[in-house]
Amino acid sequence: MFLRKYLLKQAVKQNSYFNWINENKSIQAIKSFKPLKLDLIIGVESQKNILLNNTQSFAEGNFTNNALLWGARGNGKSSLIKSVFNELLSTHKNLKLIQLNKNNIFDIELIYQLLGKFSDYRFIIFIDDLSFEKIDSDYKIIKSTLDGSIQNQPNNILLYVSSNRRHLMPRDMIDNERSSAIHTDESVEEKISLSDRFGLWIGFHKLSQIDYLKIIQAYCEYYKINYDENIKKKAIQWSLQRGNRTGRTAWQFIIDTASNQNLKINF
Known about the structure:
Elements: H1 2-14, E1 17-21, E2 26-29, H2 45-59, E3 67-71, H3 77-89, E4 95-99, H4 108-115, E5 122-127, H5 137-151, E6 157-163, H6 171-180, H7 184-192, E7 200-204, H8 209-222, H9 229-242, H10 247-260
Parallel strand pairs: 1-4, 3-6, 3-7, 4-5, 5-6
Antiparallel strand pairs: 1-2
Helix pairs in contact: 2-3, 6-7, 8-10
């Protein structure tokens, strides 16, 4: 037990980004952590400022809100969390990020026990793409776990969750509950109360073509790709072929363009 605590302490001291490993109930340092530069995340300025301010306040030792980042896929929710963390890491060495797989969410209380004792450090637990396809026993167990964990959350731990759904479940499930439940208000409240446990709701919506092209231009400038009318036309065609305009679509276009021009992109 002493050896385990010593190794955990050394890992926390020497590294900043981790995965939670369910098999041995411990953290594993990630050496190849290379998020996007925060300046390259465009079209979500309001969301960026909210999360940056909340995270900086947390890093400085203040009591801050857990955050739920929700909305359309591919618009930078996960990237923003990682980039904000990396941006602040240069000035706040005490900040740590731990990615927890949603399938291992039941370990969250154990994580609190292990890391809550390291008061010199500030830990962000990041759960990516958390959502539920149907209301079943798993939802109730996870809701109970998060409810209890948030109530018992140590002051040096913050919870950031991303989801493509505002209430972590499909809208039609909530509408169906409203139409079929005997006690409608109580039943619906039970279904959406989990998302209410997050003090910050940060929404991400579909990009306009103007913002989409701003992202393309920023990538081109950063990676030394000539941004002209031809590139703009191809970028628009690329998004139309995929049926969406997102930050992810823009990034995939840049990768394809760089490859066609024999340009090397350093991640």
